[in-house]
Design a protein that fits this description.
Distance between the termini: 99 Å
Number of helices: 25
Strand content: 5-15%
Shape: elongated
Structural class: mainly alpha
Number of strands: 7
Largest sheet: 5 strands, mixed
Helix content: 55-70%
Radius of gyration: 34 Å
């Protein structure tokens, strides 16, 4: 694997312009997310710088822009609130330790080459989870939007304090927040092509606040951001909170992986390229590791920044690196300029992000597509907002997969067929049809096709139990590319029972993975070697020949018995 991302100067102008545009968009978002998280505006800026730089340098998606995102900020807000509540003195340092742990978690996933499995989740779960995150972000911004400090207790605390918040509205700050949302919502598309609406809202809101509220103490403002390098955060753990920190790190890391790789897929569709998911996870992990080390927020691939970067000419990792460099210069030398920015403006920006995160398109038509999928999505939303993020994803994925497996099992079960005559259930050639007719129901063709997952074992047992009057069984696996363990055991039971009842068993098409599994299970050893075949017609010929031979033997035996009885009668008389 190549260590760093592909960087060249063939598209220098486009990459720099893309990086500058992405930096302009990132600045107000980073400030808003920093303040919303409780870690401060500087944490948002350093997260944008460090995550963006290392993810661009070491990631696997050249055009991806990485920075603090709405979902990551929501989780980080809960982490900071919980840890500072239990340990006010060291809670913030422990929260940054969680960010570092999340980065290490991502690096491990990428190193183990598990990137392609991260996004293998049903869309109903992803949609419900993201919509739930959006609702949480909106609820958490309610108090700042109304011009007040956020109450303790997160979502439930805010909802419980809503009557008090509504009766104590700060008209000045609420007006600025409403103005901010209006600018973001109604900025014409023609203007958006040249100036990001977030920057317009930030500048306009700040200027209006200075004109209407010249007194710095009249409304809440960010305050001056410390310039220069941040202090390195020494990893800090609390024995009482260690398990909780590991869980939070896993949630942050997994959410960052999903967020980044989904955005990488968007970048692929726009640039007609293909990202390296494992390399991207390593780059994201390094970004979050260093961001936590220097007191920055966790981040992931940002869809808005990535799309704007591509649309304005960015094609290599140089665009992401130039964006990080521009933000670095801002953090190092322009911290005093943020002092007058109203908190309400940032609350309006964050609230609009929450509205945009909600999957409105799927919410409107989920019930039309699948009522089961809609129920799963709504359940994930409720669990995400009111219970727990891990519980929401875990339960959602479990239920969705169970329903999917049940449906697949029903479809696969239709491909488990036992026939004794030449009907149309199984496609047979002319000779095979004739052979089954000659067998007169004494030869059973047990035909399986498609992957035999564990849910199909019930159908195998059902068809096997229906076998009563036959002398030979032809088990045809020619059209089976994969045989699961549970289905293999069901096949083994059918073979053992047939042999115990004196039936001749022929196995057709057991090759590759299926043959190796059957060998390890000892199934092949139970069947005569001459009955292990690769051609179904040949197996039917042999089976019919055996049945005819047994019939002839039975006829001869019956004839001998009749002659013997006649002789006995003659002797008597």
């Amino acid at each position: 694997m190549q260590l760093t991302n592909r960087i060249n100067f063939n598209n220098l102008q486009g990459d720099i312009f893309g990086g500058v545009t992405a930096a302009v968009i990132a600045l107000p978002m980073a400030l808003a997310f920093g303040v919303a998280s409780g870690a401060g505006a500087s944490a948002g800026l350093w997260g944008a710088v460090l995550v963006g730089f290392f993810a661009s340098l070491f990631g696997g998606t050249p055009t991806l822009i990485s920075e603090p995102t709405g979902p990551m900020t929501v989780v980080m807000t809960a982490v900071i609130a919980n840890l500072t509540a239990t340990n006010p003195e060291n809670g913030l340092a422990m929260a940054f330790t969680v960010v570092m742990m999340a980065g290490i978690f991502q690096i491990i996933l990428g190193s183990l080459r598990l990137g392609r499995y991260v996004t293998l989740m049903p869309y109903t779960v992803i949609s419900g989870f993201m919509s739930g995150i959006g609702i949480i972000l909106i609820i958490l911004q309610t108090a700042p939007f109304l011009g007040q400090s956020s109450p303790k207790g997160g979502v439930l605390g805010t909802l419980g304090s809503l009557p008090e918040l509504l009766t104590s509205i700060n008209p000045g700050e609420t007006g600025l927040a409403v103005l901010t949302v209006a600018i973001l919502w109604f900025t014409p598309s023609k203007v958006k092509r040249f100036v990001p609406p977030q920057l317009i809202a930030l500048v306009a809101g700040t200027i209006i606040a200075l004109l209407i509220f010249p007194d710095m103490e009249s409304i809440r403002r960010i305050g001056e951001i410390p310039m220069g390098f941040p202090q390195i955060q020494i990893p800090m753990f609390s024995p009482e909170q260690l398990q909780k920190m590991f869980v939070d790190a896993a949630v942050l890391g997994m959410l960052g992986c999903i967020d980044a790789l989904l955005t990488s897929m968007v970048a692929d569709s726009l640039t007609r390229t293909e990202h390296n998911s494992n390399k991207e996870l390593i780059g994201q992990g390094l970004g979050n590791l260093f961001s936590g080390m220097f007191g920055g927020l966790p981040g992931a691939g940002a869809t808005m920044g990535t799309v704007v970067n591509i649309q304005t000419g960015g094609r290599t990792a140089l665009s992401g690196l130039s964006r990080a460099l521009i933000l670095f210069v801002v953090v190092m030398g322009a911290g005093s300029l943020t002092e007058v920015i109203p908190m309400a403006v940032l609350a309006g920006i964050a609230l609009k992000v929450g509205i945009d995160i909600i999957d409105w398109s799927f919410l409107k038509r989920a019930h039309q597509i699948s009522w089961k999928g809609a129920l799963i999505m709504y359940a994930v939303i409720v669990l995400t907002v009111f219970v727990d993020l891990i519980a929401a994803v875990g339960i959602g994925v479990f239920v969705a997969n169970i329903l999917t497996i049940d449906r697949l099992s029903q479809l696969r079960s239709q491909n488990v067929k036992a026939v004794t005559d030449a009907d149309d259930v199984v496609e047979l050639n002319a000779e095979e049809k004739q052979l089954l007719e000659e067998a007169d129901g004494k030869v059973l063709l047990f035909h399986l096709s498609g992957p035999m997952i564990f849910g199909v074992a019930k159908a195998i047992n059902r068809e096997h139990n229906a076998i009563h009057h036959c002398d030979a069984i032809v088990l045809d696996l020619s059209d089976v590319p994969h045989m699961g363990v549970t289905s293999s055991l069901a096949i083994e039971n059918a073979i053992i029972e047939a042999i115990d009842k004196g039936r001749e068993v022929f196995l057709v098409g057991a090759t590759g993975q299926i043959k190796r599994r059957f060998e390890k299970m000892g199934i092949l050893a139970r069947i005569d070697s001459q009955n292990l075949l690769v051609d179904r017609t040949t197996a039917l010929r042999q089976a019919v020949a055996i049945v005819k031979h047994e019939r002839l033997s039975d006829s001869l035996a019956a004839g001998s018995a009749t002659a013997s009885s006649a002789a006995t009668v003659n002797e008597t008389f």
